[in-house]
Design goal:
Layout: H1 6-13, H2 23-36, H3 41-60, H4 74-99, H5 105-123
Helix pairs in contact: 3-4, 3-5, 4-5
């Protein structure tokens, strides 16, 4: 059933000019706002800490004096591999989070802060 005019639509809704919004409408609007603005500092902090650890691992791979730098043997191989795997996983996670940001907003927070910390440490 379609309405051909604005007045027909109002008649179908049984709306009167003095009527206020129903309780269901108010609850749905307020509930949607609370869910959309929900942010967690913990997720952002976790992303920053993981990004800093990966960034320090990547920086340490290039310094001779670091315990996992060039010529450090098996320890360098393990930490270097973990750092490079962390970088690859962080980039993959950031791409996935950007693709699914509407569905997983906290994952986007984590991934963006993680990648930001890695880039900041590599550029410093």
């Amino acid at each position: 059933m379609t309405a051909y005019s604005f007045d027909d639509r109002l008649d179908r809704m049984h709306w009167t000019p003095s009527a206020g919004p129903s309780r269901e409408i108010v609850d749905s609007v307020l509930g949607a706002r609370q869910r959309a603005s929900a942010r967690s500092v913990g997720v952002t902090l976790a992303g920053a800490i993981v990004g800093i650890l990966i960034g320090f691992g990547l920086i340490g791979m290039s310094f001779e004096q670091s315990p996992w730098g060039p010529g450090s043997g098996a320890v360098g191989l393990v930490f270097g591999t973990l750092s490079l795997a962390g970088l690859a996983l962080s980039v993959t996670l950031a791409l996935f989070a950007a693709w699914k940001s509407k569905r997983f907003p906290r994952l986007m927070q984590f991934a963006s802060m993680n990648l930001l910390m890695i880039v900041v440490l590599l550029l410093s």
